[in-house]
Write a structure and sequence with these properties.
homodimer, about 100 residues, alpha+beta, Alpha-Beta Plaits, 4 helices, 4 strands, globular
């Protein structure tokens, strides 16, 4: 039905808004990719330092093709270096992938 | 923008399909609730015993109203007792909630 990638990000709580703003102003390179169905950023309402990035794909192959692409690298390279440094310092990132099996 | 509830379920791998089927034949009581925007079940492609149930709501209040409702209880009570016993034996359920902050 679809393929989902979920990345859990941990940041210092005082930088969460900055990271959300960065996502809101993202380059959008991924949007043109074949099989890309959408991206959302979720912010925990219990733990202000926890964010989840969810991307949705037609299938695993389209997800993997993007992950190997220059566009993927470019979208990361674009993050403000000061924000990136803070995120990298404290982030704990788990990428997990799922098939959507029921609605 | 929206409110998301994510429940991570762990089941014995050999019962995952049965649980997916139960979701596909769910009563659908939640669908009529004010603020309900959708439900999906995700199945890990790395760990066959891991499923995530995602429900989406207009806001936290509509989610909480449903969680306190008889319909919520009824939807759980309807699970096949044998499946329910197996799930309860091994499940590790984490419910986490999020605001959707960017797309």
């Amino acid at each position: 039905m679809a393929y989902v990638s979920l990345s859990r990000l941990r940041v210092p709580a005082e930088h969460a808004d900055q990271l959300v703003t960065a996502f809101r102003h993202r380059a959008g390179l991924v949007d043109a990719w074949d099989g890309f169905l959408g991206l959302e950023v979720w912010h925990s309402d219990r733990d202000p330092g926890e964010l989840i990035m969810v991307t949705r794909w037609r299938d695993r192959d389209t997800f993997r093709a993007y992950m190997r692409s220059d566009d993927h690298q470019a979208s990361h390279a674009r993050i403000d270096p000061e924000l990136d440094a803070v995120i990298q310092l404290e982030r704990l990132e788990h990428v997990r992938t799922y098939e959507v099996v029921a609605r």
